[in-house]
Design brief:
The chain has two domains: 155 residues, Malonyl-CoA decarboxylase, oligemerization domain (Butyryl-CoA Dehydrogenase, subunit A, domain 3, Up-down Bundle); 252 residues, Aminopeptidase (3-Layer(aba) Sandwich), CATH 3.40.630.150. The chain has 19 helices and seven strands. The strands form two sheets. It has a five-stranded mixed beta sheet with strand order 1-2-3-4-5, with helices on one face. A two-stranded antiparallel ribbon has the order 6-7. It is globular. About 2% of the residues have low confidence.
Length: 414
């Protein structure tokens, strides 16, 4: 199979060279039609390569036009779909079902699949979806097109294809550079700061990779091994602290989780990442008994403003109470928490364990949460039941300490 792939790729490159290489003059609409109609693999690779090269050369207006072409001209045909459904309903059988399946899938899905046959195209398609999300948010038809990307990506990037790799100070420089660039929770300002997060023996970092994108982390988590549950990210990131012997640690703290690819938004990796890393750490370091996050509360100050509350952010205890109330009571109409980080961890089956004031005194930490942070506890024996209760009824698993804080805040309205 490898030899055949090499031969096809060689033929593809030669064919493109004979055709004058990238930048053929055919309209994009003609190229997409040719790609969908191509019957041999060399033609598919050649035409798909031309489309990807043409797309790369487009400005935002051109890319928006390309997406509108896919959304409008390569959509499902409702009349054909209705006819196929009627035929299947009248006589359920293999052929009628196949006809229904073909009619219910828009041609643009097959186009995307064929584009992905070009070597290295997966990364390009992920970036293409990032462009679609950036440019098409206000157009319903383009957001319907995005569902096709999401449908395909959910299959291509499912857990079975992902590879968990440790990231250390010895990792390749180009990977380390991406860790700096993609860090989304606590910015890494320098290589020395990155070294402090990776090199000490009480630090760990793991990332998911995909075989089709070997040089691009999809998501990564930074971990500190500690004694006890910390309540301050400044203490965790203190460059002058002495490293802890990992064998004496009893707690693994997931203090930063960063999604790396904008084009993979809504494709969930974090659940699998945390659970696998926790299981691996528990196996390698039997002394670990507690697995928690030290998480930001990004929506807290916005919610307080919307509620007409102006808290004293210099009072850590007041911020603890308000943060607990926000995390337990601020809900969307569907009963899910307003806070995105809370939705993520509670949806994974974690427990709302402790709330801390004065935990993140950085400029960003004060702006988004008045310095408050939260520990979500990952009890390996209770993942499933917590997840089911949260997903079905919006029930939040929370400690009595957090519930008490929220009750105090409700009584005093502060």
């Amino acid at each position: 199979m490898s030899l055949l792939a090499d031969l096809l790729t060689t033929a593809f490159e030669r064919n493109r060279s004979r055709r004058g290489g990238p930048g053929a003059d055919a309209p994009m609409e003609k190229l997409t039609g040719a790609l969908i109609g191509a019957s041999d693999e060399v033609s598919v690779l050649t035409t798909a390569g031309d489309i990807l090269d043409r797309y790369a050369a487009l400005d935002d207006a051109g890319r928006l036009g390309f997406f509108r072409h896919l959304a409008d001209d390569l959509n499902i045909e409702p009349a054909r779909l209705r006819k196929a459904l009627d035929a299947y309903e009248a006589q359920p059988a293999r052929d009628s079902y196949r006809a229904y399946m073909e009619a219910s899938e828009p041609p643009r899905q097959e186009l995307i699949r064929r584009l992905n046959m070009v070597p290295g195209a997966t990364t390009t398609l992920v970036r293409m979806r990032a462009d679609l999300l950036r440019l098409g948010r206000d157009e319903d038809a383009l957001m319907a097109l995005d569902l096709d990307f999401r449908h395909l990506f959910a299959s291509w990037f499912n857990r079975g294809f992902l590879v968990l790799k440790p990231i250390s100070w010895e990792s390749p420089a180009h990977i380390l550079q991406k860790i700096i660039e993609y860090e989304a929770v606590h910015a890494i300002g320098s290589w020395s700061e990155l070294r402090r997060r990776l090199e000490p023996e009480d630090r760990r970092c793991f990332a998911f990779f995909h075989p089709a994108m070997p040089d691009e982390p999809l998501i990564f988590v930074e971990i500190a091994l500690t004694k006890g549950i910390p309540g301050s990210v400044q203490a965790l990131l203190d460059s002058g602290a002495d490293p802890l012997d990992p064998t004496s640690a009893d707690t693994a703290v997931f203090y930063s989780i960063s999604n790396c690819q904008a084009g993979l938004a809504s494709i969930s990796f974090g659940n699998s990442l945390i659970k696998q890393v926790a299981a691996d750490l528990a196996r390698d370091l039997p002394g670990l008994r507690t697995f928690v996050t030290l998480s930001p509360i990004p929506g807290l100050m916005r919610w307080l403003a919307a509620e007409g509350l102006t808290p004293d952010t210099t009072d850590p205890e007041a911020m603890r109470r308000l943060a607990a109330r926000y995390l337990l009571e601020a809900k969307r109409p569907n009963k899910m928490p307003v806070d995105p980080v809370a939705r993520f961890h509670l949806g994974n089956g974690a427990i709302l364990h402790q709330v801390h004031g004065g935990a993140d005194t950085s400029e960003n930490g004060m702006a988004q949460s008045g310095g408050a942070m939260v520990n979500y506890l990952y009890d390996l024996s209770k993942f499933s039941q917590n997840h089911e209760r949260f997903a079905s009824a919006g029930d939040i698993a929370a400690s009595s300490a957090v519930r008490s804080l929220a009750a105090q805040a409700a009584k005093t309205n502060a």
